[in-house]
Amino acid sequence: MVAVMVAFVLAIEAAAILYGLRGPVRLLLDDFVGRPMAGEVKVAALALALICMPKRLRWPFVGTVAGVEVLFNAERLIAGGPMHFGNGVMWALAGLAVYASWWLRGREQAVTLKAVGIAAVLIVTSRVSGVWLELTMQALPYVADHFVEIADRALGSPSWVMGRFVHEHGWYLWLITKVYTYLPVGAAVVAYFQLRRSSTEGFPRHHIVRSFILIGAIGPIVYFLFPVVGPAYAFGDQVPGAGWLNVWPHVLPTSLEPVSAYFSQLAPRNCMPSLHTAWATAILLHALRGPRIVKAFGVFWFVCTLSATLGIGAHYGVDLVAGFVFALTLEAALVRPEDGWHRRRVLTVAGGAAAFAAILLCIRYLSVPMATGGPIVPALLLGTAAAVAYAFSRVAYPSSGGVLAAPSGMGERPVVVTSPLP
Known about the structure:
- The protein has 422 residues and is mostly helical.
- It is built from 19 helices and 5 strands.
- The chain has helices at residues 2-18, 24-33, 39-52, 58-79, 87-103, 106-139, 145-152, 158-168, 170-181, 183-195, 198-201, 208-225, 231-234, 275-287, 292-311, 317-334, 343-365, 367-372, 376-396, and strands spanning 142-143, 261-262, 399-400, 403-406, 415-418.
- A 3-stranded antiparallel sheet has the order 3-4-5, with no helix packed on it. Strands 1-2 form a two-stranded antiparallel ribbon.
- The model is unreliable at 400-408 and 413-422 (pLDDT under 50).
């Protein structure tokens, strides 16, 4: 697994060099000795490492992080530069990995190295995804926003509706923007409840970090197959002067002649599917297996994320439907691993993948019929998503014979409750 990840990072590095971009290797070096970015990812990585490592190592680890952060930012303060957060996390993780490999043994060593690994994977994938988005800008000058916008009229152009609402309610715009930005921190909150006993009871077989990594690994591939920049870019002024019409969110376009068109290479092609929606769906699904306060948190984060994706003009409504189906399909493959690949799981994953592909193909080739097809089109779109959700629930919460499999808790530890059938 480590070899595959290293090979993938090096491949992205080579592609970045080819396009004259800074690759993930150089960005990771910046995290160590330069000016680290994506502070919210570093916060989430720090939280995950602390959750998973043995208790006796937590305070020394925090002390190392704080000490290194003070040193780096003292130098920046003297030089008159801006403050940054992240160097301390990187050096502390590297130091902890060396310490665990050299001094620790047995279970404590395994748990500590896994804590470092989970945090490191989160950081590495964030760097790779950032470069990946830059590659979409350079490699895909033409985008399909005209097709998506027209198809989105079947749902009532929700990005325009939500965009107007949030621009009239500044407090809500502020709230959802924070949730949208700090998505990794939201996942870390749920991960805390799943992994808080991992240092003593072992890691659960399925947890939210696995879901996040898989969504982030597979989802961006579709960006190259279906490049879309979003309404605030294509039909607004997110990139000054680049918008085709500059009408978002106040005036709806009326054209029914979709074409692939050039868009500025200053905007990432990261709309189809909405991975923010997919990740928020993963947060919701994992949170629903927790205590009541975690369930409420998951619902809150899900609603705010969906509001943000539409309200700030990052996505169209059909992007969200595609992201929701995409997340459910991957979760169906991951949930309850102790059950194996039974027939219901295989059919759900295959059906979800087919539904996801069908949604994308319809948007690309049937956008005008979707926009003019009346109520049956949104019924089919939302009905497809509901059908995938139902199929997922049959995999995640199965029941058969005289044994009911209860939700196995935040960490997917199997619990079987005997109950007579009626």
